[in-house]
TrEMBL record:
CDD domains: Hemerythrin. It comes from the Bacteria. GO terms for molecular function: metal ion binding. This is Hemerythrin-like metal-binding protein.
Length: 144
């Protein structure tokens, strides 16, 4: 089941909110290609784009935090690095399953629910817990 953008995901910064919307779209795409992985190239493309965009988003979000003088930037950066590391492990696992003669496409299909649940939690937990701490910053501050 796909994730849909909800008003409670809104951080209050247009660039960050747009990034979060696109990350939701990418996670929904990964879910689709994992459920129907008949062409492993589609799985590879979706995972590569999710990883690339997540890294770009984290860098952009950190630059915005610097511009607004966010006091917890270092901790937020650490969370971003940890999230990317988790995503890298997941991607490696999917690749290993696809390459395994006993796993392959059917192995990916069998794991698709678990993987997409992880990705949903990965994104939604970060947005709802860590990024929500930015909301007061955007309400009160003017970019320096």
């Amino acid at each position: 089941m796909p994730i849909f953008w909800r008003p409670q995901f809104r951080i209050g910064h247009d660039d960050i909110d747009a990034d979060h919307r696109y990350l939701i779209l990418l996670i929904n795409t990964v879910e689709l290609v994992l459920r129907f992985p008949d062409d492993p190239r589609n799985v590879e493309l979706a995972l590569t784009e999710l990883r690339r965009y997540a890294e770009d988003h984290f860098e952009r979000e950190e630059r915005i935090q610097i511009a607004y003088g966010y006091l917890h930037l270092d901790q937020h950066k650490l969370e971003h690095r940890a999230l990317l590391a988790e995503l890298d492990i997941l991607v490696q696992r999917i690749h290993a399953t696809l390459e395994d003669s006993d796993g392959g496409v059917e192995g990916v299909k069998a794991q698709s629910g678990e993987i997409t649940a992880f990705l949903r939690k990965w994104l939604v937990d970060h947005v709802m817990k860590s990024d929500m701490q930015l909301v007061p910053l955007f309400r009160k501050s003017v970019v320096r």
